[in-house]
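S2.1 Query sequence (Fumarate reductase)
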Amino acid sequence: MKLTLLSFVLCSIFSTASWAANDKNDLASFHKEMGGCKSCHTQPGKVSDSETHENQQCKSCHGDYSALANPKLKLDPHASHLGDINCTSCHKGHEKPKLYCNECHSFKGLEMPFNDAKSKEAWDKGWDNEAINKAISAGPKETTDVIVVGAGSAGFNAAIAAKKAGARVILLEKAPFSGGNSMLAAGGYNAVGTEQQKAHKVDDKIEWFVEDTMKGGRNANDPKLVQILAEQSADGIKWLESLGANMDDLKRSGGARVDRTHRPSGGLSVGPHIIDVLRKASINEGVDTRLNSKVVKLVVDDEQKIVGVVVHGKHSGHYMVAAKSVVLATGGYGFNKEMIAFYRPTFKGMTSSNNITSTGDGIELAKAIGASMTDIDWIQAHPTVGKDSRILISETVRGVGAIMVNKDGNRFISELTTRDKASDAILKQPEQYAWLVFDNELYKKAKMVQGYDHLDMLEKANTVSELAKITGMKENSLEKTISNYNRYFKQGKDEEFGREQMPLPLKNAPFYAVKVAPGIHHTMGGVAIDTKAEVLDIQSKPLKGLFAAGEVTGGVHGYNRLGGNAVADTVIFGKIAGTNAAKHALETK
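Output structure tokens follow.
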């Protein structure tokens, strides 16, 4: 019997007979005959926004993700890149289950239509100004030192740093699970002067990191922020390692002159690994993390100093929390189609690799209290998003040896050029798509590639000729392209496009290809910050008590971001924002 992803989730948790006896596919109906409301709730009608008790009840009966995982199932929701997320992210108490997988993926052979995230969560139905004003008038429901908005890498790093600095911290996340856009990061973390570079005998300098980043950003970056990114990059690696991360693998990303992109050993994607580490570290540090809690207002006093936020909780409604410092770590606006169309009309309608939560909330919150924006209209299209999907094909694939060819099978640009140039080159091709081609040696080396295969994204053949026929490329052209590339690899010089690094030849069958096209990947602009991660007003003065880090900010990347710099940005400026937010809160009377 062929199971869809949804039917497996239901059948793996509940017996088919018991489930069929109910009229509704919701948990309340199922548990009605097994203890009633108390089988899930402490008190019916009193549920925390994070639904912590309810999730603990699920696992106490059915086990954790490892117990529910089914290795026989091709696509297993209990073994996904999202990690061990809340059961209630998918399973609903009083309505039909809704799989988060469906928000981003379309799977061949399974009855899971790609819905382009048309559904709306409770936290994404607009802002209720009347309810917000009532919450402010009612006064704070509670008080803390630092509030961090957004539980991706920047938010977690800020919250952990603030807690380590001695502040009371509340971390607020609008989604039903943490991770944000960072959960989708596949490439790595750029750093200079690390032990990993020393072990691999890589000669690198802070000046080179700065020069490469400025050149990649077309010299529109804020030099002071780039200097900090470079100088503190190695310390950021040490920080992650102290929390339990493995960053031992090393490769080169587009726009870098040497190998400086660090990632987990074994070819694992960097984002899921880091988020898993940060989730555990935040628990160990005692960070008060609240899910399903959307910040809908930054509250300031008459002098424009931060005094708190208004939160819209899934179950608790609107309420105010007082705090002397707030850190915005809400990410960019790469999944807000209206903002994309407004700021960059030429990208209107383009697919996006972003998490559905990347809707520009932090930008709107900051603008509402007079924050200045920088580079807000600069949006990066990643050149290799899976064609007709929203799945990013990491730059790592090209970095470790894949070549990029057009519909005929001819290379047309260096695979390790910057993302903007690669995207432009693909869009200039007649069909506006390309193929990444590689062999079995790369397939075995990069685990993320095996993940793409798992999702039926790869074309596979025993010979180059057969691969050309399957993909519609010209047989002679692809064979000549690969023959030439292997010759360039052997002689150590790419005669056609000057590719500087060729780690592998393409010789070992089977051969693979994945179809790619540019998609919205990163918004370089956002709120303006200074070197302390303080948010600046339109006169370039700090808004007292407001800090920001990660993709919600502008200035670090200029007009184009280099692969590997975003993760570094979230860690380094997340730490800076959290530390300074704690200092401000603890010193302010």
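The two ends are 66 Å apart (CA to CA). The longest strand covers residues 511-523.
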